[in-house]
Amino acid sequence: MAAAPPSRRRRRLNTATIIWRRRFVFWLGAVAVGYVAVGFAQAADWAQALFSRVNAVSPYIALALTPAGIALSAFIGKRYFVGAEGSGIPQAIAARDIRDRPTLERLLSLRIAAGKIALTLLGLGVGASIGREGPTVQIGASILVWLSYRTGMGRQQGLILAGGAAGVAAAFNTPLAGVVFAIEEMSRSFERSIGSLVLIAVILAGIAAVSVSGTASYFGETIAVLNGWRDWFVVPVVAIVSGGLGGAFARSVIWSSRRMPAMFGGFTARRPMTFAALCGLGVALLGLLSHGASYGTGYQAAKAALNGQLNQPAIFTLTKLLSSLLSQMAGIPGGLLSPSLSIGAGLGAALSHLMPGVSPGAVAVLAMVGFFTGAVQAPITGFVIVAEMTGDQAMIIPVMATALIATLVSKAITPDPLYHALAEDFGNRLAAKSSSDVAPELALN
User: Which of 214, 281, 324, 355 is buried deepest, with most CB atoms within 10 A?
Assistant: First the structure.
């Protein structure tokens, strides 16, 4: 058989070179996402610890510090980092449908990623009730998209999805949840051609994260269990209550996002910094009421609830829910995943007082997954992420049942999934912005 002509061999070599260059860039980006996520997590812990030390001097300092810090975060975000506000997951979802680079970079870029990190840390440093995991999704997607353009490869299909999945996996140290999150929440469908892309991104980001933070579960190892079928009556009860509250919370966040410019007679649009400061004052007052438990991500309170050691769980649940809503209304960067998990854990601790004989930790685990899935309407992600974060294999079946029931209850309250509704809002605002940019040119023509 005759050898292939030199030109054909050269084309094959060039094609192989391009493929392997793309793979190398992608691998490098996935590892970078893992290390950035771990560094972000450590910095977030430091910011919360700093606020706790300040709050320990006098809890009343927050009455000035929290409103000023939240107003500053809102000002910097609106002035220099438009597109970095809120969770970050809706931006990543909205960006999947964007093809032109200038519009895409309004949601995903290194500049926005840097602003997201800095302003989320600022929010945590002044006591805002926000999380870092949602922002890590936007940061991960931004890193992979930037690398793709930087190396001349353009926008590659699946990079946003893979970057977001890698962000979740590294942020929570939950590789399986990263894959499931990408499939269920970010795409709502799964393309066979990018399945390996997502899996490789999660593996590499996970390896990078583990190399720094180890293999420990997010909430450690819990031993909660339902003792036989007599305890299973709590599953539908907890699922209905937590799923309903999660759905109501999601509906409130969506409503406030869409109605914000017109709220209070347009005051929020005319004086956004003043409104953000008032939201911050509300967060501070709720922090005083909860003795500081409602500030930050709520990680410590959730861990205490899982161990049956949370004090005043009803007050914590209420203050944490309202603080999270106010923090979102203020328009600052910061996520909802950690606050949602902590609200659910607190709710479970409160409900356990009404269920004598049932493990308080088991009720907390069920309510945690119930509120989370009620808020985001992603039941598979909900039970996988909670199972991986707690390391509690004995609760998998009741957790799955709770996630399913909670999602059905939530859909009866709010038909639109939280992140997809917010992603639609981002898309509409980008379309309106693009139209307003083009309008003057049309007028001149």
Answer: 324
- CA pair distance 34, 345, nearest whole angstrom: 27
Q: Could you identify the residue written with the tokens 């893992």?
A: 34
- CA distances 412 to 245, 248, 283, 372, 379, Å, are 12, 10, 29, 16, 15
Residues ≥6 apart with Cβ < 8 Å to 369: 242, 344, 382, 383, 386, 399, 402, 403, 406
Asked whether residue 16 carries a pLDDT value surpassing 80, the answer given is no
Give the 3-state secondary structure of residue 168.
Answer: helix
In the prediction, which pLDDT does 205 show?
Answer: 63
Q: Select from 249, 227, 221, 216 the least CA-distant residue to 360.
A: 227
Q: What is the pLDDT of residue 411?
A: 92
Phi, psi for 335 (deg, rounded to 5): -95, 175
The single-letter DSSP state of residue 333 is B
230 within 8 A of 398, measured Cβ to Cβ: no
In this predicted structure, what is the pLDDT of residue 161? 76
- 214 — pLDDT class (breaks 50, 70, 90): low
Give first-to-last CA distance, the chain, whole Å: 63
Half-sphere exposure of 375 (CA within 13 A, CB side): 25
CA atoms of 268 and 186, how far apart (whole Å): 30
Decide if 318 contacts 287 (C-beta within 8 A).
no
Rounded Cα distance, 429 and 25, in Å: 32
Residue 335 forms beta bridges with which residues?
A: 131
Q: What's phi and psi for 333, nearest 5 deg?
A: -65, 140
Distance CA 104, CA 100 (A): 6
Residues in the chain: 445
- Going along the chain from its start, the domains and CATH numbers come out as 16-213 (1.10.3080.10), 229-426 (1.10.3080.10)
Cα 71 to Cα 143: distance, rounded to the nearest angstrom: 28
Amino acid present at 261 = P
| Whether 201 contacts 335, CB under 8 Å | no
pLDDT surpasses 90 at 250: yes
CA proximity to 169, closest of 42, 37, 46: 37
CA atoms within 13 A on the CB side of 361: 21
Q: Residue 23 belongs to what H/E stretch?
A: helix 6-57
Cα–Cα separations (whole angstroms), residue 117 to 110, 122, 140: 10, 9, 11
